[in-house]
Amino acid sequence: MTGSQRHTEPLDVHLIAVRDGTAGTEVLLSRRAGDVYAAGCRHLPSGHLDGSWEHMVTALVRKTREETGVVVDPADVRAAVTVHHRSPAGGARLGVFFEVRRWHGTPQVTERAVCDAMGWFALDELPEPMVAYCRAGLDAYRAGARMGVHFQEPGDPLAYDPAVDRLLLVPDLSDRSALPEDTVRAFAEQAVGRITRWTDVSWARAESRVWRAYGAEGGTWYVKIHQNDRFHQREVDALRGWVPALGAAAPRLVAADAALRAVVLTAVGGRSLHGATYPPEQQRRIFHLIGQLAACIHTSAPPRPGGGALQVEKLGRHLDGARPHLAPGDEQFIRATAERAADLPALEVVPTHGDFQLRNLRWDEAADTLYVIDFERSEEGPAVRDFVRLSDVWYGRPDLLQAVMDGYGRLFTPEEEAQLTVLSVLDAVSGISYGAAHCDPELVERGHRTLARLRAVQGPDPHAAARGAAPDHHAATRGAAR
Question: Which residue stretches of the chain have pLDDT < 70?
């Protein structure tokens, strides 16, 4: 033992009675009154065990009846969270918080000497003032934690004050893999304040991680760890550079840490377009907004003269990975298409998203607003770079292509059509190689579709493209619809 005596803290039980209300989940709170601890503050119905003969559930049922007048069946009591608390005066205790969703009777004030009000409050908008100890238990409950420590310091107020919030959540073994590392959590909380809940929203890839973070005082952010320094710097440069020109259509950078390769971003609304289905009329509206958003991206900074021919130096490496998965004739077509890259005219370069596809686009149907996320592949390039992964989506749907072009404000030039073909082939090979190596069947399938589509338009002569006959992506779409 490091101390001179054993701990002999009392044990409290706390009732978290919750119901579905008009403002969402609501919790029952009373207001302390009279000559009691923290008079005037809101608090959960609670109390001590009567003695060694009484266990926790029996005590909760008894205190609930005594303080609120309602009857709870012990079978309806659920363990919520346990908090080890120390008051500013130094006294410590163990609080066990229980959730109850069913009871008999209507809650009302029954001990008027110590309580002068009782009511239902939105769990996401807790009232003030509230006993800091009680607020700690509710914050831990809202965070989904099983255990917390709330050791106040001498001089701390009895009422909850976010400036001296002492709650420390103890990670659950089952949640360990879903939480960011301690250094990342500390970085995020330094930027936005205490975070009460983390939800892992990463794609099924191990290279990068993304969490949705919920603040103790409300607010939602995204915390992202990049898979390498280059992606981190690209995203940070874009968020500090041209992305603010998109306004509310994109997240805002709150904080960045190059050593951790971490960023904290504001949350945007909407639902990911990846895998979502909509009626044709709504699809056309969405693709019109996609065209408008692409135009905003490409005009967020003045264009500059291009830097020469398209870079195809990585083709050999990607072909090595993709070759076992290619169809007969694919490699010949790929090489013939890549050969023409050196002869294509240089296009002006503009800011590009670099991964402009449905999974990085979110649509808020009620607000008719489109949002774009994930800028780690952003760099200057020809504008058509951002249409490579969308061209697979509008293939066979001339109405969607028309909607995109209407929103974008113009059609592609012949020079852009030629570059789009080469970029699409390179992206297909890269996707097949990466997808096969990282067990991502979606990338592999998309690469196969792209190659099959472009080969069907180009015809049986794989060298036609090398002689300047670039496939017309508009014609390809129109032809597939007939």
Answer: 1-7, 23, 173-178, 204-207, 307-313, 459-482
Q: DSSP 3-state assignment of 303?
A: coil
The 3 state secondary structure assigned to 220-260 is: EEEEEECCCHHHHHHHHHHHHCCHHHHHHHCCCEEEEECCC
Tell which residue, 405, 150, 434, has the closest CA to residue 284: 405
Amino acid making up residue 332? Q
Q: Please, how many CA atoms are within 13 Å of residue 467, restricted to the half-sphere of its CB? A: 5
Please report the domains of the chain, with CATH numbers, ordered by start residue. 11-170 (3.90.79.10), 175-266 (3.30.200.20), 271-481 (3.90.1200.10)
**Interstrand relation of 77-86 and 147-151 (parallel, antiparallel or unpaired):** parallel
| Contact call for residues 465 and 337 (beta carbons, < 8 A) | yes
Taking the CB of residue 340, how many other CB atoms lie within 10 A of it? 22
Across all residues in the chain, what is the average pLDDT? 88
How crowded is residue 289: how many other Cβ atoms within 10 Å of its Cβ? 20
Q: Residues 97, 103, 108, CA angle at the centre, nearest 5°? A: 85
Closest CA to 136 of 95, 79, 178, 182: 95
For 140-179, write each residue's pLDDT tens digit: 998 888 899 999 999 999 999 988 899 988 877 555 556 7
Dihedral sign of CA atoms 378, 384, 388, 392 in order: positive
pTM value is 0.66
Cβ proximity of 180 and 112 under 8 Å: no
Beta strands 369-372; 361-364: pairing state: antiparallel
How far is it, in rounded angstroms, from Cα 355 to Cα 364?
20
Residue with the two structure tokens 């994109």:
250
Based on the number of CB atoms within 10 Å of its own CB, is 292 exposed (0-12), middle (13-18) or buried (19 or more)? middle
To the nearest 10°, report the CA torsion of 189, 195, 199, 200: 10
Instruction: Report the C-alpha gap between 102 and 95 in whole angstroms.
Output: 22
pLDDT digit string, tens, across residues 291-314: 999 999 999 999 999 765 556 667
Buried b (16+ CB within 10 A) or exposed e, 298-310: bebeeeeebeeeb
- For residue 50, give the 3-state DSSP assignment: coil
- Percentage with pLDDT > 90 across the chain: 66
**Distance, CA of 325 to CA of 371 (rounded, Å):** 35
